[in-house]
Amino acid sequence: MIVLALHPEWQEMAREEVLQVCGQKEPNFEALIHLKIVNMILNEVLRLYPPVISLYQHTYKETRIGNIHLPARVDLTLPMLLIHHDPELWGDDVEEFRTERFLGVSRASKDQLALFPFGWSPRTCIGRNFAMLEAKMALAMILQNFEFNLSPSYIHAPRTVMILQPQHGAQIIIHQL
Ligand code: HEM
């Protein structure tokens, strides 16, 4: 909601899509899978602000990943936030909110695995589909009924306390449509 308040043009496009697909009806599963723009927005938000900013792994035995050879008992850090903000992977506009980069997921970055807010391994998040569905459902219902913008008191200061979150809260002004 913060990002869509900062980018009202995308808020409007997302609302148009929701109204086109669901009208004023409560969105159902069928409708939610047709929300392409909302899905692109969620991907771009998860790229810029992944709730989990790093993943940690430990090799319990000698391991090979591609052409990297790792001995046993090595701690590995996968710096998700850095990878999501790497201009070599995403281009010079990496810090900008540019939803259109996800128009074709394979074209969004140089490496298809560069976006991994839910992890990428046999231990990938089991709640992934549920979380995306829930986010789409909530956002769609909010967009059907409300327009929102940022309060002048909002300060953009994401920081990590277990997960990435707005340090001073998310003061949003909501207007019923
Ligand atoms: C936006 C929401 C969420 C994000 C960004 C997220 C992210 C992640 C990440 C990064 C991992 C670690 C994956 C790895 O080690 O490779 C993980 C694991 C996990 N997540 Fe989520 N998650 C979310 C929502 C949920 C929800 C809603 C549930 C449950 C309903 C859930 C359940 C789990 C579980 C059980 C694991 C451990 C899987 C395992 O180690 O086998 N997550 N999640």
UniProtKB/TrEMBL annotation:
Places the protein is found: Membrane
From which organism does this entry originate?
Answer: Populus trichocarpa (Western balsam poplar)
- Keywords assigned by UniProt? Heme, Iron, Membrane, Metal-binding, Monooxygenase, Oxidoreductase, Transmembrane, Transmembrane helix
Stored InterPro entries: Cyt_P450, Cyt_P450_E_grp-IV, Cyt_P450_sf, Cytochrome_P450_Monooxygen
Q: Which GO terms describe its molecular function?
A: heme binding; iron ion binding; monooxygenase activity; oxidoreductase activity, acting on paired donors, with incorporation or reduction of molecular oxygen
Q: Where along this sequence does the record place binding of heme?
A: C125
Protein name from the UniProt record: Cytochrome P450 family protein
The Swiss-Prot or TrEMBL record lists the needed cofactor(s) as: heme
| Superkingdom to which the source organism belongs | Eukaryota
Topology relative to the membrane? Single-pass membrane protein
What the record says about family reads: Belongs to the cytochrome P450 family.
Keyword check for Cell membrane: no
A Gene Ontology CC term for this entry?
membrane
